Amino acid sequence: MNEHVTQQRLNMDWMLKDLASSVPFTRHVVVLSADGLCMAKYGTDTDTSDRLAAACAGLQSLSGAVAAEFPDGDGTMRLVVIEVGGGFFYLMAAGARAYLAVLADDGVDAGLMGQRMRDLVARIGQHLTSPPRADGQVT
């Protein structure tokens, strides 16, 4: 991992912690690139964050295909919310080729989570951008 990516990840840690601590019942927060690489994480281990990032990339691609079916839309995914047994999953576009994903337990205030995620993306969206890759390396 190059120095730019390492510094970017360290800079995002406190921002993700702020999101998690401001919304009770937040379990995991992950920032991922469009191709499924974990860029930053809070409240989770590396294996879990890597699995979430890979799954989110597939979900993002699927939701983009659904978005393309709306003739007046721009074909992009903005927010996906999935309620599952035990809690909620949120995936939000968070910058060019970057996404913010959150897993939260059943007791979460779904509206508050969506609002805080939007606030975070609006505040620091430029930091939540995945740089283009050349030959598998971040440039």
Automatic annotation (TrEMBL):
Q: Which Pfam families match?
A: Robl_LC7
UniProt xrefs under PANTHER family: SERINE PROTEASE INHIBITOR RV3364C
Residue ranges constituting the Roadblock/LAMTOR2 domain according to the UniProt record: 13-104
Record's protein name: Dynein regulation protein LC7
Q: Which organism is it from?
A: Streptomyces albospinus
